[in-house]
Structure formats: C-alpha cells, structure tokens
C-alpha cells in the first residue's frame, strides 16, 4: 500500500458544507484500492520505507468501513511475507531492514486476515521467530524497547512490542513489569506521557503508553482524571483535536486523543458531535481519502485515523474499533480469544 | 546522463532493479530515473555488503533525494564505522542536511549514534539552537537535546538561560516549558531541589501568566510545582483570584484560574463556590468540555472530594 498523498484534497472550505456531512464510504474504498496502482508517481517510490505500515492502515480502514474483502487477501499475504527477514523481523518492503514498526504492522495484518496458520505453513515456527525478534529488542536495563539493532528507544516501540506479542500470545517472552515501570517514568508533571523520561507530553505518545498499560493490565497506574483533563483540553473550538498545547488540530489526533480517552473511560469528556463534524470536513467527497485538516492533500495515514476516530464516537454504519489496537474489535477479540 | 551507469568508478557493479513483479514503470520523469538508478546500485552494493567511499557518496545522494529511507541511514552508519571515517566531517555534513529536512526523523538517531561515538558535544547546542530557530516545537530536536544534556552532563551549561530566551520569544511554547521542567527537576542524580529554586520557578510561571493569562503551559507548570512540592492548591488562592472569581463572571480573564479556584474551594470544602466556578466553565468559558466540568462537580458530592 503506497503512501502517495492526494490526488484529492480534504474538505470544502466554503459554506457548502451542511449537506455534505456524511461519510463517503464508497469513495474511500475506491481511494484505498487505487493506492497501489499509482506506481508511475515518484512519491510512490519515495514512501517505500513505509509500505507495510501503509498496508496495515489501508486494510484496517477497509475493515472499519465494512469492506474486509476490499483488498486481495492472497496478494496482501504474499507481500507481507516477502518483507520477513530470517531473524523474525519485518522490513517496510522487500530489501528494507527489519524494524519493530513494520514487524508490528505485519503481525496486525496477519491477525486481521486470521492468517497465523498460514504464517506457520510458510515459515515453520514463524510465530515464535517473530516473538523472539521482538523480545530481543527489549532493553534489559530500562525495560523499554528499541526499534532495531541500532538501539533507538521510544515508547512507540514499547507499545508496539506489547501489541504484537499479545496478538501472538507470546507476552511471556518479555519482562512486562519492567516495561510498565519504564512507562511510569515517562509520566510528566502535566499528567501526560512522552517518548522517554522527561520528554514533552504528546497525545501520540500518551496513546502508546496508555495502550501498553492496558495490554499489561495496569491501567490502575493511570491518574485518569488528570490525564483525561489534559486530553480533553486538546479539543479546539472547531471540534478538532491537537496533540500538544498551542498546536494545530490534525485528524490523526482524533485517534490518539479519543482512543486514550476511551481506554480510561473518559471519551464523553470531549464533544463527539463537533469532532465528528471536524473529521467529516477533512474527507474528499469526490476522490475519497482524508487529509490532516480541511484543504490539505489526503493520504492513507489520515484516512485510517479519521475513520477509526469516527468509529470510536460510534458513527453509524462503521465497524467497532478496539481503542487499544486500532483494529476491528471483532478481530482482536478473535485473536486474543483463541489464545485462551 | 546516468549518474552511475556511465561512471567508470561504478562499472564493476550490476545494478539490481526493483523486483515488484511487473514492468518497471519508472520512466516518465528524469528525477524518478535518478532515484531509481541510485536505489538499484544501493541494492547491489548492499547485496555484497560493500563498505567504501563510493558507498558513502551513494548513500549521501539517496538521502538528498529521500531522507526518510531508514535503511540507507543505517547502512551509511555501518559504513562510516567500518571505514573509521572522519565523524566530525559527518556532523558538518549533517547540519545543513537536517536544516533542509526539518521534519525528518531518521537523521536524529543517526546524529545521536555519531555523537555517541565521537564522545563530544562540541558545537551541538549551537546547532540545536539553529534548528529550533527554524522550528521551535520540533519534538525530535527537543528529545535529542534532552539526550545530549543527560549524556554529557550539561545541566548547568546554559540550558536554563537558553530556555528562558526561547520563552521570551514565545511564552506559549509548551516544548520550552517542558524543557525547563526537565532542566530544573530532571537530573536523576540530583536529590530534590531547595526552596529557593521552588520559589524561583513559581515566580517565573506567575510572571508568564501575567503576560498571557489564558496560556495553558505556565498554569500546568504551576500545578506541577504544587504537586512536586506537595503543597495544597490554596497556596495559589490569592494569585488565582487576580484572574477570576466565581462572583464576577463578567471579569474572568482566565478559565485556568477558574479551574484552579474550583480545586481550591473544593479543598476548603466550600462546595457552593466550587460549583459556581465549575458551572461557569461548563456553561460559559469552556462549554465544549461541559461533561468534564460536570464530572468535576459530581466529585464534590463525594466525601473524599477535598483530599
């Protein structure tokens, strides 16, 4: 799935809006399906280092739109497997180094397609191999996780590790308590969390920390009222959400902020109706896709997080999303249920 | 025409084109050709694990076209270390490259790897300042700065002064406020701070609030100080009353002051005033979060509300 932006722009910036306040499902499906046909555009190739995550975004968006068969299952599976390395990690595309982020995307896609059986058929012991790769990236002195062998650490990687390992049923390969302690060290004076101890609170990082605590069964450690207060303060008068104080709104924070609020049971602290309007104003009603804010180019990243945000606030007709995994709730229930 | 196929220095390499199972569609634009050719040479040298000067040149070329390609950065770092290259020269090249690609993220980890190996922070703070001049809230730059301060023990090397300079430029820069907290309280080797420092920080945040009463960052900072020092909210009662009072709804200069006052009245078990403040927030000054303020009101009914 390519990350090519456009062709369309989100939103209509004049007063024609009111009658447009609906979700253009078919347009978004076509938009996502068309992404992989745009190989004559330079940007297609310049975004190759993101492709596997792009596939996860596109596939998840289609599932949430109720079109799980929108992409050819076998081709998706073939592409995912072509990104796997001998060490159990996945690169963004064939020939790219293995990295935590793409390994998580691969596991999420495999879980969504219910394809862990096929993984084993294609790579004997594949599940275990992936689990071992992820576990090898835990920093045993701090409990956090690196993105690859080069050692850059980030709470994004920690969350991703717990996300993927839980879907694989292999959480026991890592030291959960130590990971939880690390997240607590990332808690800031304002109630939020950052990328590492001391780093500024950021809604994206808050999502990763809260979701990781949720997977670890340790949401009791979160000061829900304080964090919920900070998160709900992210809503601006236009209904959109920003990621930090004094920053602009962006559709992707519809996901990071709202999912975090949902996990701590405080989603009703923001105005869902205004958020819905903001998100819908970011779609391109003609060519499909969502932009970060009205008037900008659409892309698949903002498309999935816009749709997932709408699903969180129960927009009619969408499949229910799991706020912890950003996957359809039915999928995570199935994947996690199989393990019990 | 072609940068590599016509260059004798590369004549021993058979480029490996992208294998995407179909005819190669990369023909229309010259720039596209340039990128695709360079990538096909990269695939070929990576297949042989070649570490050489020409590989450094090739990675530099690809990075100039696509700095987000993480595999290229990693291969470049491996190559630099294998060849024992001049790492100061690498930093000198990285500086303009980072300034050209402000939103790029891979470059910061590369820089950290190089500086770690160089074991010297010389010139880094100056460079960071020029980055922040271009984008004062860049998350990667601030994270890198924190790493640098910790790694080279720069806590007392002008960080506080630098942050003050930035807040003077833009008192709403939340990243700078966060860095201030980090510089004052973030040193793990330090055992608490004395009362003088606490007072200085209180005064600093208050002065910022006088300038911009509706600015979230200094209010958050002030509240953080209360929590850190385990002081009751009522410590700030007089100060908050300068900006708002539930009794004078037409003279509210800061919703954050009302928010704090609600906590202060709750602490004092003055339920009536606390409710007034929260009602004003829910109905007039921050209605988009009415549910939040109403929840806060419901807490007043609980016996533990004051704690």
TrEMBL record, chain A:
<dbReference type="InterPro" id="IPR001330">
    <property type="entry name" value="Prenyltrans"/>
</dbReference>
<comment type="similarity">
    <text>Belongs to the protein prenyltransferase subunit beta family.</text>
</comment>
<keyword id="KW-0808">Transferase</keyword>
<protein>
    <recommendedName>
        <fullName>Geranylgeranyl transferase type-2 subunit beta</fullName>
        <ecNumber>2.5.1.60</ecNumber>
    </recommendedName>
</protein>
<dbReference type="GO" id="GO:0005968">
    <property type="term" value="C:Rab-protein geranylgeranyltransferase complex"/>
</dbReference>
<keyword id="KW-0677">Repeat</keyword>
<dbReference type="InterPro" id="IPR026873">
    <property type="entry name" value="Ptb1"/>
</dbReference>
<keyword id="KW-0637">Prenyltransferase</keyword>
<keyword id="KW-0479">Metal-binding</keyword>
<dbReference type="InterPro" id="IPR008930">
    <property type="entry name" value="Terpenoid_cyclase/PrenylTrfase"/>
</dbReference>
<dbReference type="GO" id="GO:0004663">
    <property type="term" value="F:Rab geranylgeranyltransferase activity"/>
</dbReference>
<dbReference type="Pfam" id="PF00432">
    <property type="entry name" value="Prenyltrans"/>
</dbReference>
<dbReference type="InterPro" id="IPR045089">
    <property type="entry name" value="PGGT1B-like"/>
</dbReference>
<feature type="domain" description="Prenyltransferase alpha-alpha toroid">
    <location>
        <begin position="23"/>
        <end position="327"/>
    </location>
</feature>
<comment type="function">
    <text>Catalyzes the transfer of a geranylgeranyl moiety from geranylgeranyl diphosphate to both cysteines of proteins with the C-terminal sequence -XXCC, -XCXC and -CCXX.</text>
</comment>
<keyword id="KW-0862">Zinc</keyword>
<dbReference type="GO" id="GO:0046872">
    <property type="term" value="F:metal ion binding"/>
</dbReference>
From TrEMBL, chain B:
<dbReference type="GO" id="GO:0005953">
    <property type="term" value="C:CAAX-protein geranylgeranyltransferase complex"/>
</dbReference>
<dbReference type="InterPro" id="IPR002088">
    <property type="entry name" value="Prenyl_trans_a"/>
</dbReference>
<dbReference type="GO" id="GO:0004660">
    <property type="term" value="F:protein farnesyltransferase activity"/>
</dbReference>
<comment type="similarity">
    <text>Belongs to the protein prenyltransferase subunit alpha family.</text>
</comment>
<keyword id="KW-0460">Magnesium</keyword>
<keyword id="KW-0637">Prenyltransferase</keyword>
<protein>
    <recommendedName>
        <fullName>Protein farnesyltransferase/geranylgeranyltransferase type-1 subunit alpha</fullName>
        <ecNumber>2.5.1.58</ecNumber>
        <ecNumber>2.5.1.59</ecNumber>
    </recommendedName>
</protein>
<dbReference type="Pfam" id="PF01239">
    <property type="entry name" value="PPTA"/>
</dbReference>
<keyword id="KW-0677">Repeat</keyword>
<dbReference type="GO" id="GO:0005965">
    <property type="term" value="C:protein farnesyltransferase complex"/>
</dbReference>
<dbReference type="GO" id="GO:0004662">
    <property type="term" value="F:CAAX-protein geranylgeranyltransferase activity"/>
</dbReference>
<keyword id="KW-0808">Transferase</keyword>
């Amino acid at each position: 799935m390519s990350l090519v932006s456009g062709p369309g722009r989100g939103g209509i910036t004049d007063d024609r809006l009111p009658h447009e306040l609906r979700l253009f499902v078919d347009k978004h499906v076509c938009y996502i399906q068309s992404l992989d046909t745009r190989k004559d555009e330079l940007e297609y190739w310049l975004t190759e280092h993101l492709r596997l995550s792009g596939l996860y975004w596109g596939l998840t968006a289609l599932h949430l739109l109720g079109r799980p068969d929108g992409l050819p299952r076998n081709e998706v599976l073939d592409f995912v497997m072509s990104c796997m390395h001998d060490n159990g990690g996945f690169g963004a595309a064939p020939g790219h180094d293995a990295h935590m982020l793409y390994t998580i995307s691969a596991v999420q896609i495999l879980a969504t397609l219910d394809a862990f059986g096929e993984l084993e058929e294609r790579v004997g012991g594949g599940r275990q191999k992936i689990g071992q790769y992820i576990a090898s990236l835990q920093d045993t002195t701090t409990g956090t996780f690196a993105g690859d062998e080069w050692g850059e650490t980030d709470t994004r990687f920690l969350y991703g590790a717990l996300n993927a390992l839980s879907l694989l049923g292999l959480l026991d390969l890592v030291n959960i308590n130590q990971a939880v302690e690390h997240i607590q060290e990332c808690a800031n004076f304002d109630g939020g969390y950052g990328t590492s101890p001391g780093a500024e609170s950021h809604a994206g990082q808050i999502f990763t920390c809260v979701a990781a605590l949720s997977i670890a069964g340790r949401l009791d450690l979160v000061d829900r009222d304080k964090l919920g207060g900070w998160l709900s303060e992210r809503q601006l008068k236009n209904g959109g959400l920003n990621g930090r104080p004094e920053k602009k709104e962006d559709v992707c924070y519809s996901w990071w902020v709202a999912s975090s609020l949902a996990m701590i049971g405080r989603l009703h602290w923001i105005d869902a109706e205004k958020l819905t309007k903001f998100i819908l104003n970011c779609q391109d009603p003609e060519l499909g896709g969502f932009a970060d804010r009205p008037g900008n180019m659409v892309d698949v990243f903002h498309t999935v997080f816009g749709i997932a945000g709408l699903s969180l606030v129960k927009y009619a007709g969408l499949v229910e999303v799991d706020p912890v995994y950003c996957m359809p709730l039915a999928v995570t229930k199935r994947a996690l249920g199989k393990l019990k | 025409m072609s940068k590599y196929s016509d260059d004798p220095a590369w004549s021993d390499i058979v480029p490996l084109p992208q294998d995407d199972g179909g005819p190669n569609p990369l023909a229309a634009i010259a720039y596209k050709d340039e990128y695709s050719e360079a990538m096909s040479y990269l695939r070929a040298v990576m297949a042989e694990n070649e570490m050489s000067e020409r590989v450094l040149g090739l990675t530099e070329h690809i990075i100039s076209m696509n700095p987000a390609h993480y595999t290229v950065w990693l291969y470049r770092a491996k190559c630099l270390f294998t060849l024992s290259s001049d790492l100061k020269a690498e930093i000198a090249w990285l500086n303009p490259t980072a300034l050209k690609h402000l939103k790029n993220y891979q470059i910061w980890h590369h820089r950290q790897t190089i500086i770690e190996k160089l074991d010297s922070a010389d010139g880094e703070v100056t460079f960071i300042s020029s980055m922040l001049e271009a984008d004062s809230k860049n998350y990667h730059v601030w994270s890198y700065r924190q790493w640098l301060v910790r790694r080279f023990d720069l806590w007392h090397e002008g960080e506080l002064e630098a942050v003050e300079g930035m807040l003077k430029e833009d008192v709403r820069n939340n990243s700078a406020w966060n860095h201030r907290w980090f510089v004052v309280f973030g040193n793990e080797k330090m055992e608490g701070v004395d009362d003088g420092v606490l007072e200085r920080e209180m005064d600093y945040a208050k002065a910022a609030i006088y300038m911009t009463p509706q600015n979230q960052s200094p209010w958050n900072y002030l509240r953080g100080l209360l929590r850190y020092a385990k002081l009751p909210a009522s410590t700030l009662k007089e100060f908050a009353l300068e900006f708002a009072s539930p009794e004078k709804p037409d003279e509210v200069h800061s919703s954050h002051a009302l928010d704090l006052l609600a906590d202060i009245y709750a602490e004092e078990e003055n339920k009536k005033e606390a409710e007034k403040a929260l009602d004003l927030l829910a109905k007039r000054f921050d209605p988009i979060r009415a549910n939040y303020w109403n929840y806060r009101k419901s807490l007043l009914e609980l016996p533990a509300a004051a704690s």
